[in-house]
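Tokens in:
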């Protein structure tokens, strides 16, 4: 796998299980990258949906992708505190075009007090039927939801108190 360099701006592409492009984030600055982890930062980034609609993110965010876990985490720095949006999805892959992963519908939203909510369970069930998710994928996703919830409760990895602050400070050095 090719590894992007810190400071490099990359595109992020999420796909659905059937191979269709789901969503594209235009520019994310790589803060750290190796074969297992990619940490990036962005602010007011153009996002394009599969139907062509576009929108711009509202706040700075630090993104955490892992090559062994079936989720990614976005820490959004808002005036009301730090919020996280976690996507259940395949481990990431990176090629010269973009960072890519398959979005498996389920999401977890984490609030500043570290309470959290599992979202989009009906969408997951619907797509599981429509796209024929194999049993092995369903088992992996259910298992990864549990791992992700434990990480949140334990303040592990991107949920540790200093993680977002540390990487946001690094992100700011690339904005000058």
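Residues out:
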């Amino acid at each position: 796998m090719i590894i992007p360099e810190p400071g490099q701006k990359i595109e992020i592409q999420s796909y659905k299980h059937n191979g269709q492009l789901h969503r594209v984030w235009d520019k994310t600055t790589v803060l750290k990258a190796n074969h297992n982890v990619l940490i990036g930062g962005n602010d007011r980034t153009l996002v394009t949906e599969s139907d062509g609609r576009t929108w711009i993110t509202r706040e700075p965010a630090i993104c955490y992708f892992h090559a062994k876990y079936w989720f990614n985490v976005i820490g959004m720095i808002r005036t009301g505190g730090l919020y996280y949006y976690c996507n259940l999805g395949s481990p990431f892959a990176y090629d010269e075009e973009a960072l890519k992963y398959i979005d498996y519908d389920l999401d977890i939203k984490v609030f500043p007090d570290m309470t959290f909510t599992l979202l989009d369970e009906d969408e997951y069930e619907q797509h599981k039927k429509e796209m024929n998710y194999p049993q092995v994928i369903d088992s992996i996703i259910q298992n990864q939801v549990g791992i992700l919830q434990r990480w949140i409760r334990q303040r592990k990895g991107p949920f540790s108190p200093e993680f977002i602050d540390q990487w946001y400070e690094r992100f700011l050095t690339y904005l000058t």
